[in-house]
Amino acid sequence: MKLSAFIYSPYGYTGEQTPRAALIGFNGNRYDPPAGTYALGQGYRYYSPAPMRFYSPDHLSPFGKGGYNAYAYCACDPLNFRDDTGQHRTFARLQHFWESQSRQPIQQVAPRTIKPAVQAIANRPLKASAPALALKTKKKTVSFNLQPQTHRYPAEPIADIKFREKEIQSLSIYIEAFRKRIKRKKRMLNELNDPSTLHFALSQGFDENGYNIEKLKLAVWLEDAQYRIRRLNNALKTYMHY
């Protein structure tokens, strides 16, 4: 008594009550009921769906002596690979593309060879002609006027003076506003340095560490402000003595 299980494989599926000889898998391979295998590779080797292995590994196997796992499902990918000769796999989906690309055979063009006369001329050192030497020896000389002349128009000093006056006025206003801001920051720092201010801040729930950090930030700002005010005064003097 021969038992036949319901088997799925890349070559279709078969059942106990189905005539296997009449079934063809999706890739067109016919099942051989007496042998219980598929004749693949133009009969070069056989595949058994029960153990999902190939029988009789061929002697041209690229995997050494071969074995049951030598050609398992065409590299485990029967959808993208196929083996029409039974000796090596090919790309199934790309086969049509390569065939369409290779319909017109590529013509092999022989490499060009230089004739002896042309080769002799090509290897002959070039001699410079007389006009070429004359152009090579002749150099262009460009002279520059080292004493530039400056032209002033009558309206130019007036416009320049008005521009300086406007800049001096704007800069003076900015310096005065910045000095007032420095004075306010100094008063704030003096208040923070007062012990009574610290006691009041602690009574209100402020952290002493945060209180000291704010004092440090304010002191650093005042130090930078003194540097900025000196730079602004120097710029103002430059405009006034121009």
Automatic annotation (TrEMBL):
Task: Write the protein's name.
Answer: RHS repeat-associated core domain-containing protein
This protein's superkingdom? Bacteria
The species is Pseudomonas juntendi
